[in-house]
């Protein structure tokens, strides 16, 4: 595959996958998801790769979720909602290698969900986390809600979705959404150290451990599939369309 929206690089025993849409705050469209799925699977089943790093280009954003400019009642790709986002989330979980989120800026909306789905997360002290779906007439009705509750706790997960607040990196660390926070200039070095530690360990043992962790929350995949069908119907409503329109017009939405 010739990548348009992402970069793929192998550094030692780690594959670095970068969403390369900095002008869009690394928001993903249909083709972005397709390329990410391909790259994650390409690295995940390569026996020479010990770890996968997922990040965003530039310093402003890790990922800010679905590109609203590509959303008109549905996104611009395939899948239930026009984005194969369920497949991307599943690819991250299904490959037998640790996937590390290198969070270099905003991890908002679907970007926050990607952090949730990754096995590990290391953030710059300038990173910002949060949900935005209810502001734009959307939601992630699977891993983005149910798995998030397992990661940060039920009350905090509900707060994130029902208030759409922003959380600095230090608070994300305290709630368990990330494993470590370092100065922005030390981010790459820290991520590389973690990759080197993983590379020194038994790949089979790590693969078994990952699958064991995932088995406990595997039912969420089915919940998400059902939820995406509901979300497809929601995207066709005036309420959801108002969220997207307001976002594009840079004004507060009028949902009621």
In short:
The chain is α/β, with parallel strands linked by helices and 256 residues long.
Could you characterize the architecture of this molecule?
The chain has a domain of 179 residues: 2-enoyl-CoA Hydratase, Chain A, domain 1 (Alpha-Beta Complex). 45% of the residues lie in helices and 17% in strands. Strands 1-2-3-5-7-10 form a six-stranded mixed beta sheet, with helices on both faces. A hairpin with a 2-residue loop joins strand 1 and strand 2. The longest helix is centred in the C-terminal third of the chain and has 17 residues. The protein is globular, with a radius of gyration of 17 Å. The protein starts with 5 loop residues before the first strand and ends in a 7-residue tail after the last helix. The model has no long low-confidence stretch (mean pLDDT 95).
Low-confidence stretches: none
Q: Oligomeric status of the shown chains?
A: single chain
Give the beta-strand count: 10
Largest sheet: 6 strands, mixed
Shape: globular
Rg calculated over all Cα atoms: 17 Å
Helix content: 40-55%
Assigned CATH architecture of the domain at 6-184? Alpha-Beta Complex
Order of helices and strands: EEHEEHEEHEEHHEHEHHHH
Separation of termini? 45 Å
What topology emerges from the helices and strands here?
Layout: E1 6-11, E2 14-19, H1 30-44, E3 51-56, E4 61-63, H2 85-94, E5 99-103, E6 106-108, H3 110-117, E7 120-124, E8 128-130, H4 143-152, H5 154-163, E9 166-168, H6 169-175, E10 180-182, H7 187-199, H8 203-216, H9 219-235, H10 238-249
Parallel strand pairs: 2-3, 3-5, 4-6, 5-7, 6-8, 7-10
Antiparallel strand pairs: 1-2, 8-9
């Amino acid at each position: 595959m010739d990548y348009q929206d992402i970069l793929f690089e192998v550094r030692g025993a780690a594959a670095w996958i970068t969403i390369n849409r900095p002008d869009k705050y690394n928001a993903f469209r249909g083709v972005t998801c397709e390329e990410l799925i391909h790259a994650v699977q390409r690295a995940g089943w390569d026996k020479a790769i010990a770890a996968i790093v997922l990040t965003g280009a530039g310093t402003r954003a890790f990922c800010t979720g679905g590109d609203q400019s590509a959303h008109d009642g549905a996104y611009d790709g395939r899948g239930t909602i026009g984005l194969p986002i369920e497949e991307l989330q599943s690819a991250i979980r299904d490959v037998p290698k640790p996937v590390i989120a290198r969070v270099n800026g905003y991890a908002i909306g679907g970007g926050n969900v990607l952090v949730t789905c990754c096995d590990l997360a290391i953030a710059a002290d300038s990173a910002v986390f949060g949900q935005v779906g209810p502001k734009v007439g959307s939601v992630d009705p699977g891993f983005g809600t149910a798995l998030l509750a397992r990661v940060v706790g039920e009350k905090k997960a509900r707060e994130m979705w029902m208030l759409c607040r922003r959380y600095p990196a230090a608070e994300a660390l305290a709630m368990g959404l990330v494993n470590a926070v370092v100065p922005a200039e030390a981010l790459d070095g820290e991520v590389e150290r973690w990759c080197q530690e993983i590379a020194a360990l038994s790949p089979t043992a790590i693969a078994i451990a990952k699958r064991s962790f995932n088995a406990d929350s595997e039912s969420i995949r089915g919940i998400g599939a059902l939820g995406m069908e509901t979300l497809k119907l929601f995207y066709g409503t005036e309420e959801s369309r108002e969220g997207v329109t307001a976002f594009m017009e840079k004004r507060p939405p009028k949902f009621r």
